[in-house]
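Hi P.,

Sorry for the delay on this. The queue was packed all week, but I finally got your sequence through. Input first:
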Amino acid sequence: MLHVAAWAIFFTLPYLLRGPHENTRPEDARKEKFSAIFSIIMDLGWMGFFYLNAFVLIPKLVYRKKFWLYTFFLALVFAWVLLQGWAIYTAFGNPDFKLRQFLIFNFFIYLFFLATSTAYQLIKDRMEMDKRVNERERENLKTELSLLRSQVSPHFMFNVLNNIVSLSRRQPDQVEPSLIKLSSLMRYMLYEADETRVPLEKEIEYLQSYIDLQKQRFGKKLTVNTCLNHVDTQYLIEPMLLIPFVENAFKHGTGLITQPQIDIELKAKGQDLHFTVKNKYNDATEEVKDKTSGIGLTNVQRRLNLLYDKRHSLMISKNSDWFIVSLQIHLN
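Then the structure:
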């Protein structure tokens, strides 16, 4: 529709600008008829040149860096315009044809259509390329997020099952409550984690189930302080985004550590979420990492960059005997 409107304006503009006048002599009427036919033929030729340059010459020659051949075709087109004008004037027997004036006048029109058709095709191709790039980035983002989320679940389940195996050897009577907690965790992972966003309250329930499961394992050997404030507003968050920090604290904050302690605090104020996890650690007795160590934190850092980009702040530090993770996310 835009093309039709543009060409309609182009075809009718000369007649609109000319204004009304009267033909009193037969010679004037003949010249008027000749001028109208000549204008229509030339306008159709310019239209053909526009689409020839935009859809054929630029994609086939310019994009393939055949510049000399492109220049040759442009010169050929302009020569055709001159030949066409001369042929029309000759056919109608008009003695007023002056090559120099015709050449100068049509040369500027030729440059105008050359510039507009080139700009049109370049802009059109750039917009299509940007659209394809954006679509590719969205698909890559979906694929990467799915992959990262799929990495969380097996890694997390691997650690939880190891905890239950350890518990079955030392406290068999606690296996059943642990399995009930585990079923709650699996229910969340299977039915909630596939959503793009979940209510923050569900994520907190998930964290609490995991913490309870770990408390059953360690008992009085580990001090765990939690402050997971009740969230009244229905905040939404990426599922299983916070658990790697808690999991990392239990994995590296226990073992050969004097009076091990883990502090977990979550607050949601305004549109900002503040999440802090602290655990004691000991460099001298720090365990040798296995092949799966570090997947959780590296994973969640990548997910934060993909999902929240500049709307989050993550600080990981070691202060005295404490390993501290502080996360802030703007949830809106």
